[in-house]
Amino acid sequence: MGASLSNLTENESTTGKPGLGDIPENCVACVFMYLNPLEICNLARLNRAFRGAASSDAVWDSKLPENYHQLLDVLPQRKFEGFSKKDIFSFLSRPVPFDDGNKGFSKKDVFAFLSRPVPFDDGNKEVWLDRISGRICMSISAKAMLITSGEDRRHWNWFPTEESRFHVVAYCQQVWWFEVSGSVKFPFPPDVYTLTFRVHLGKYHKRLGCRVCNFEHTHGWDLGPVRYELSTSDGQHIVNEYFIHDCDQDDASANIKRGNWIEYKVGEFIVSRSDPATEVRFSMKQIDCTHSKGGLCVDSVSIIPSDLKGRRRKGVLKYQ
């Protein structure tokens, strides 16, 4: 098939027959508007006409969210006037840190970001476009949340890890009142979104190159459910309760849970319009003070279009 496709891309002067290279660029662009970004980039390798069509603003405008100008406005010091729609899509499809406008990007920063991967470790929130569907995804670090007794090292600690996109997670050593809450205000494009908390039972580290979990402080989660809650500025309100360590499960299932990151679904919310921006408030709490609890890592909250949640990362379990 590769050989025949190669023959099709040759022009008339070589084969005496029309090939893909003879298709007008505007016709190719019309076809590309029905393909996803990965398919477009793959086909752009075939010939000059396909490469030209793959750079068309009309093609990439159809892949960007309708309110992408509002998304760019979230970034202070933005200078995107000279960027093509393809460059803007490329920029937004990589995680872009933001935290209430405290992180600025100059044109030099944007150019460096597009040229090679540049780590930004001090951003507490990240937003990006899904590279296949072009839809908005978001992740919020525990650093951006309010943690009850979070400043008391007897109860909470922070430790660095490569398993978090923010390179740091919060570790609950022992508390009686457990509560983690946060909020975000953002011009989400119209869609149905799922909000999840990413947590991990036990404290993990590497020993001799192997991942090892320490469950010394893990206790209390089987004595009562954790209450997950979300509400939006337009009146949507959802509450769910799950046992983080459910003693009704068999030992094999419990061991799998204790050794992996778990994403607990708080619920879904609907955005019908991007203006005004939607404010989302979320929390997880276990405030039954009859017993202590501890040995839990809290990494982040993710907000992702609901039908994209099926793409699971390796080592992450979904619980709903």
Concise overview:
This protein is 22% helix and 32% strand. It is built from 10 helices and 16 strands.
Q: Helix and strand layout, with pairings?
A:
Blueprint lengths: L1 H7 L3 H4 L9 H8 L4 H7 L4 H7 L2 H5 L6 H6 L11 H8 L3 E3 L8 H9 L9 E5 L6 E6 L4 E2 L8 E5 L7 E5 L5 E9 L4 E11 L1 E5 L2 E5 L11 E7 L4 E6 L8 H8 L2 E11 L6 E9 L9 E10 L10 E4 L1
Parallel strand pairs: 13-16
Antiparallel strand pairs: 1-2, 2-3, 3-15, 4-7, 5-6, 6-15, 7-14, 8-13, 8-15, 9-10, 11-12, 11-14
Helix pairs in contact: 3-5
Give an overview of the whole structure.
The chain is of the alpha+beta class and about 325 residues long. About 20% of the residues lie in helices and about 30% in strands. The protein contains 10 helices and 16 strands. The chain has helices at about 1-10, 10-15, 25-30, 35-45, 50-55, 55-60, 70-75, 85-90, 105-115, 250-260; strands at about 95-100, 125-130, 135-140, 145, 155-160, 170, 180-185, 190-200, 205, 210-215, 225-230, 235-240, 260-270, 280-285, 295-305, 315-320. Strands 1, 2, 3, 5, 6, 8, 13, 15 and 16 form a 9-stranded mixed beta sheet that branches. It has a 5-stranded antiparallel beta sheet with strand order 4-7-14-11-12, with no helix packed on it. The chain is elongated, with a radius of gyration of 24 Å. Mean pLDDT is about 75; it is low at about 1-15 and about 100-120. This is F-box domain-containing protein. It comes from Anisodus tanguticus. Pfam families: F-box, PP2.
